[in-house]
Amino acid sequence: METLDERLTAVKYGIRERLQDKEMVMSEYWETTYNLLLNEGIVEAPYSAVDTMTISTRIGSGMIDNLGLKECRGIYGRYVCRSDVKLSEAAQNDVEALSEFKSSLRDYLAAVFDSNSFTRSEYDTLVRDYVESSADIYDFRAKSELTGIMLASMESCFDIEEDGPRIGRYNIKLLEESMKRI
Predict the structure, then answer these.
(1) Which stretches of the chain drop beneath a pLDDT of 50?
(2) Which of 20, 28, 38, 126 stands 20 to 30 A from 85 (CA)?
(3) What structural domains and CATH numbers belong to the chain?
């Protein structure tokens, strides 16, 4: 009877073999990890079972580190591959498109505010509007994910001040300033 270490080693080699000469989108990677775990008798329940999904993801994440795999993100997908394997042309184009998008957003934000200082609500609104107005990104799900990615990744490039107390959707300070103007 095989030990758990032997079974996990078989999973590890199975992942490495499947990534021999190509990348995988992350959803395919998680599914592959699950199927290998299932084949080795480490999991028995369907992938949709919470415990099975959790352990498959934990082991898959550990294998990324254990095998020294690299993860890349594009506008339309996340990819995993061996460090000695080049991304396919489509995946590479997707990754480069994200890099270019991030650069153009950074330039846009810097042009809008010379001081590179924003309130949280200004920053959130500008990023969301920029992503939403991009005609190059046609997929709604991709736009939603990209908004979150851009909000998180661009934050360190700028001085973002918290808005302060809010009433409903509005910052109290902004409400007071608006009242003075009307």
Answers:
(1) none
(2) 38
(3) 4-86 (1.10.10), 90-181 (no CATH)
